[in-house]
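fold-stage: in
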Amino acid sequence: MGCLLALFGAFFPRLALFCIWIARPVLFDAALGSTFLAILGMLFLPFTTLMYVLLWTPDGLSGTDWLFVAIGVVIDVTSTAGSAYSNRDRVPPAYRMY
């Protein structure tokens, strides 16, 4: 059950972005500008992209909106760094930096 919860937590922002993209394609395209940027955001920075799309207005983002986008960046970076740190022992000795 714990693995299922972790798997759902990892894919939730990507699933939410996909649902927003399907439900409101005009909003999604207006916020991000291009499909290429949207796909890159889904792959590498899903929480940041999700926060940006949810908080975007035609006037742009205001001060506190940028705070939530920054929190999304922190969540994305810590999740990537945490997975890299937990898998550090799986790297073959030839590739380790001493």
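fold-stage: in (second)
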Amino acid sequence: MKRITTDVAIIGGGPSGLAAALEAAKNGVRVLILERDFELGGILQQCIHNGFGLRYFKEELTGPEYAQRFVNQLADTNIEILRGTMVTDLKPDRSITAVNKGGAVMIKSQAVVLAMGCRERARGAINVPGDRCAGVFPAGLAQRFVNMEGYMPAKSAVIVGSGDIGMIMARRLTLEGAKVNAVVEVLPYAAGLVRNRVQCLEDYNIPLYLCHTVTHIHGKDRVQGVTISQVDDKWRPLQGTNRYIECDTVLFSVGLIPENELSQRAGVELSSTGGPVVNELCETSVPGIFAAGNVLQVHDLVDWVTLEAQRAGNNAAQFVKDLAKGATERERIKVIPGDNVGYVVPQFVDHLTTDARTQFSFRPKAPDENAQVQIESGGSVLAKRWRPHVIPSEMINVTTRLDRSAIKDKEITVRIVPQPQKEAQ
């Protein structure tokens, strides 16, 4: 059995793992990346469309181009990389068990960054009734087939859900000669970014059925069609609204699930969103284990993933340096989602200093216009930001300095409220 000792171990070599590793290495610590695929880049390798890097690099890149910029930086570092290596266990003492073609590998690290990303929510997770026939795929799998493997999975398709991957695949299949008959969304608005709805659906005249759901998938050996129905405000199908659509393929784009099985094995506490509970340093409930990227919260832009992972990598390296100094005293301040806020990351603020700036990331529960984001404590507003519109598909990031004396009862609330009329003008 091979044994490796390192300072910071990064589980995952996607955009978050690469950014965390490079940032940690800048602090002079030893860094090891564990990647289960045969190449680095994660999901970006199959995202050949453009639109990446507008915030971070200030230019428009494809997914592979964005990933390659970070891969190129590895050549100037001493970061060790193990590709084709599957992590099978993570313990609270930050010891890792992995396997690859050489056999079992035991890694002893002083800090760990979780960067495993997400997997897709499939048909079974939302209980779509119908026949169990060929031609039913998660949209991301179909994307890999087309963009990386060179297989065309459909001639005529219906896409369930209007997530970003679903809308992007609607355009991709159209460009490859397939007919996309419908994108069916149970919500009264598209679940993905506005730009994807415009560029992928409207520009290609692909129908989007809002407030609809698939009530049956038909087919014996292969999908032959689907029945869709309109839904009420509680997502229940309405009788008399059934409509049959012929197709040979059904793609599901109904959300992502953070891959946190390893996190649970290490005793990491998870939040209601499926990601770890973290403080403002991206540190989980287990000291020395950090999390960033889609394993922490589902991001809509890879640029936000990079910035978040850089914080995690830097703080993981600082944790290693501070180990010799002993444990630091913490003053745990709870962060609570308020009006029209689904969740907030971080869930706690532990190391509040006068010169530190804390970033809060969150998503609204419902769309709104002319809204004000407020960070409050004990009824006092600590920070506020105006937003012309908010939608659940676009994550909001607010960075501010917090005054310790203004925080009451060790609680902070983040809420989205209607903008006062005078301020709106």
